[in-house]
Amino acid sequence: MATVQHGRRKGTPKAQSSSPDKSKDKLLILSSKEWQSIQDRKNKVLPANIQLAIDMQKDRQQKHEKSVEQVSSWGNTIVGKRNKRLNARRLREEEEEKERQKLDIEEAEIKAAERREAIEHAKKLQYYQTDRVKGFHGALLLSEVIKEREAQIALKKEIDNAMKNADDHLLQWEKNQLQEAARIEKEKAEARQKAEAELRKTQYLQAEEKRKEVIAAKVQDIEEGKAIQKDVDLFFQENEKKAKERELKAKMLKQNYDQHLLLENKIREQQRIAEKQNDQEIKLYANAKRKMANLRKKREGELFQAFQDHQQAMVNHLATLVKEQVDDEDSRIAQAVADRDAKRLAEEEDGKKRRAMMQKEILKHRLESMALNEKKLDDAKKDQTLDLQRRIAEDQTYFKEQEQRIANKKVEEDEVQNILGKQAQERLKKQQFEKHNELEADKRSALLVKEEEDEFQRYADAVIDLAKQRGRPVGPLIKAKNAGAGGGSGPIFEGKSNLRPSYQANDAYGNQLPRFATGAAKKINESSDTSKRLGFVW
């Protein structure tokens, strides 16, 4: 590959050219190794050693995965046996869970049937609590009372007739009662025997199923016990091996401990001998220290005496110096006065120079301050002019924004008017829809009332037929049946599903007033001077 380089590299001669327009570019020749290295970097080829390490890592990973896959299928290992037992237990538990689920489903179905029966019973009780049905049941009770009264009257007549031959009649009656009681007891005994037989059969089947389950559980426990015994034997063998290893380690530890004790005894003996030697050295050191203290005390006395001699020599020398100083004091005073006067004159001259320089600086500062104030005034005037222009622009912008805000407000008001008109139309549609729903609800209510009335009529007809079959008086039942729904005392409305509304007029205790007119009411109406009804009924 040839690489084009512009210009001339350092150390290379200039190219010889026959004309000034000829190109001065050079071609760079690369070796095969450099070319291969560039190609490897371009193609992202890894070096040989790194590629070899990656291949070895992949090979090890593949071998490991193959080994794990092969071992997982072995069944003669502890892990394989444990897995088999676990799988068998899992399958057994799944079967038991399926059986339990079946039982749960059956129980759920039974519970659902019981709930349906309870709901039907509750609906029936709720239906029996309605005013119409309660009134009908009151009429049924009245018919039963009438029938009972008639039976009592008939019984009284029979008793009166039977009193003529009381003993025979009483014996016959007791005999009939005994026969009836015996028949009832026999029927009860047969029913109990049948129920007991069914119970014994059910209990026998349950006991047989339980016995099979116990036998299967025992067999399973025996198999699991054998497997556990094998694991226990292996465990004990491992423990024996570990115990022998611990005993061997304990013997080795005891030997090391005995050797350590012998070594400690030797070290203590050597330390005792060394302590004796140290005590002797300490005694020698104390004697040498006492000798050195005596020599130090003697040396200190010599030094103190030399210090006293030196101090006396210094005192003598100072006395000589004081005497010489008194003789030279006058000359030194005159020299000091001359130096002071010269210094004062120099300071006065320096002060004059400083004051003159300070005055010049003050004047210069005043001129600069005046120029600066004039500049500040000009800048303030410019700022005021710019501020005035800015406020005029802001006012114009504000007026434009106000005009735009007024226009936007008008648009918003128009939108609000449109929305209000739509809302009014929606309210009208909603009212119409609600009115339609109310009419539909009235229709559905009328249908529901009709269905309830039809159901009540069917129920009342069935009860009346049963009462006729049992010989009960049906007059109160027919009256309660034809009373109409609503529970009121007014006339039946044919167009309102045969409803019988209630009057609003009540007495002092809240009882509804009757719908018929009494003689007293007619007299009051006839004696009044007005033709209006005044709330009375006639």
Describe this structure in words.
The chain is mostly helical and 538 residues long. The protein is 81% helix and 1% strand. The protein has eight helices and two strands; from the N terminus they run ββαααααααα. It has helices at residues 32-43, 48-71, 78-128, 131-162, 166-327, 329-469, 475-481, 519-527, and strands at 2-5, 26-29. The protein has a two-stranded antiparallel ribbon. α4 (131-162) packs antiparallel against α7 (475-481). The longest helix has 162 residues, at 166-327. The radius of gyration is 67 Å and the shape is extended. It starts with a strand and ends in an 11-residue tail after the last helix. The model is unreliable at 1-9 and 11-24 (pLDDT under 50).
Beta-strand portion reads under 5%
In DSSP terms (H or I, runs of 4 or more residues), the helix count works out at: 8
Structure class: mainly alpha
Largest sheet: 2 strands, antiparallel
- The residue ranges in which pLDDT falls below 50 over 5 or more consecutive positions are 1-9, 11-24
Instruction: Label the overall shape.
Output: extended
Record field, number of beta strands: 2
Average pLDDT: 77
Distance between the termini: 131 Å
Element-by-element helix/strand order: EEHHHHHHHH
How much is the radius of gyration in Å? 67 Å
Spatial order of the strands in the main sheet?
Answer: 1-2
> What percent of the residues sit in helical stretches (DSSP H or I)?
over 70%
